[in-house]
Amino acid sequence: MAPPGYLNWLIDTGERQATACGREIEIWALNPQEDAAVLSEWSKHFREHYISDSDLPFMAGGTGLDHATFLRTILFPDAKVAPGPSLRSGDFGEIIVADFIQYFLGYWCPRELRYQDRWNRNDSTKGCDVIGFKFANEENPGPADELFIFESKSGMSTTDANRLQDAINDSIKDRLREGMSLNAIKRRFFDRGEMGDARKVERFQNQADRPFCRINGAAAILDEAVFAGTDFTATDGAVHFNQENLRLLVIRGPSLMKLVHALYERAADEA
Fold it and tell me: CA-CA 20 to 30 A from 172: which of 59, 142, 242, 265?
């Protein structure tokens, strides 16, 4: 599958900052352009995390709602009523991180089911934010296989919080959430009869008997103003249980909340 065109706007700045514990933080920049074709492709990619375009006519049928209204009132987090806007920014950040590890780092990252199975549009999905899998040899699983679990935090309005530190702190909780999250993904594939994918997830459910490499990540997706006001040198990951395999990422961009809302609007209008 070809990467979404908007990823051409996600650029490694080459800038690196050091945390208080001596770890490296990668700084990437998202610089959207006024390109209608790419924005339409991006909105479709975004929309299909919530429902496939092939399923939309049936699911909207019988509601008396057109596709755009169905998406805005039944599936997408609310644009104005809390916690809808924060869920929008959070989902946006998770999807970008998922795209990052899939298309830039080469992991298999099944994530649509995380949003498609959401019963309440204004309630976040529980569990690990982003999970990626990489197989050195799919026919012969071995210790070089990788499980990558990323915690994502968005910061798109003025805040005193260090959102990267928040992501690290929540990543520590992934030690307990990992098993439940893998079970949930496996169950979703099982329920859909997609046994091959269910088995691929199952491969990572018992590290003692089937060794693999576990990598953890913490990401902050920040508006430029929030990025400028954050002291990343105070960030500390020393107490993380997987500190030897902890990747830290910051993605910054201009007027991100405006972009988020515009993306949801286009995703609805063009459905």
Answer: 142
CA distances, 107 to each of 95, 101, 166, 236 (Å): 14, 6, 24, 26
Residue 251: name the closest of 29, 93, 20 by CA. Answer: 29
β-strand partners of 129 = none
**DSSP string across 148-161:** EEEEEEEE-S--SS
pLDDT at 124: 86
Handedness of CA 6, 153, 237, 183 (dihedral sign): negative
- Dist CA 63 CA 70 (whole Å): 8
SS3 string, 87-125, reads HHHHHHHHHHHHHHHHHHCCCECCCHHHHHCCCCCCCCC
Q: Ramachandran region of residue 64, left (φ > 0), alpha (ψ -120 to 50) or beta?
A: left
Closest to 219 measured CA to CA, from 146, 166, 156: 166
Question: Which pLDDT score is estimated for 2?
Answer: 81
Could you tell me the two tokens for 151? 């915690």
Which H or E element spans position 44? Answer: helix 36-47
pLDDT tens-digit readout, 245-258: 999 999 999 999 99
pLDDT of residue 139: 82
Model confidence band, residue 117 (pLDDT cutoffs 50, 70, 90): confident
